[in-house]
């Protein structure tokens, strides 16, 4: 007979045999051969006379009439014809099956259907995953288990993910519930979304001394990652806002009173953009510049209200 099995499962090749059974004719050894070797002389994949039989191959019959054979964790190279052979204690008692059994090995397959068109999976989409195996001939009686990142999450042939979000991203596989060693190929669900949780921050603080330095940093979560960051400053009602930077960090090397004000950033990818809340900078103290003449060298002296000065070429 032809037998079908899913890769990773266990399969039993049913077998029975008859022979002249009497006190002088007793079965002393049993063997199973595969088509890649000689069915009569071996080597055999199982031989009761050998101590080197692979644990995946197990003779589960007896030496009377049952010659059934089990293969665990079947692999693609187990495909092929199998034949039973036995020997009795009589010199002429060597018998080999005529037709044998043909074993076919198939992989579990998964079908992914995006209910609202093709393209990248985005937040709000719905996805249907279906587990298929060629051995059931369309019979829906097989029980399946679905896994996400190695953890069992659902039972059944189909897994329906509706209104997906970033939490649904991960690697999905299915297996036949009664055969733990079976597993389909990995299906990666990568849910894309626009920028989220966009925020702006100031380092070292939003209140800084004049002539010190400060850095504004914009952060956001997005898939694919943020493509563009833009920093804006709110000027006034007439002017509105002006763009002051196009990187995720905005550096002020020497803070002056002109830095005082309200800022926010915008993060953008192909699915949209999001603005941060407002970051308000306050510059403490004032400074101004006056020319000072020293022989042969002209310096500018920066003086600020907190006291002290420095010479600048």
From TrEMBL:
It holds the Pfam family Ig_2. Residues 109-190, 195-280 form the Ig-like domain. SMART domains: IG, IGc2. PANTHER family: B-CELL RECEPTOR CD22-RELATED, VASCULAR CELL ADHESION MOLECULE 1. This is Ig-like domain-containing protein. It comes from Seriola lalandi dorsalis.
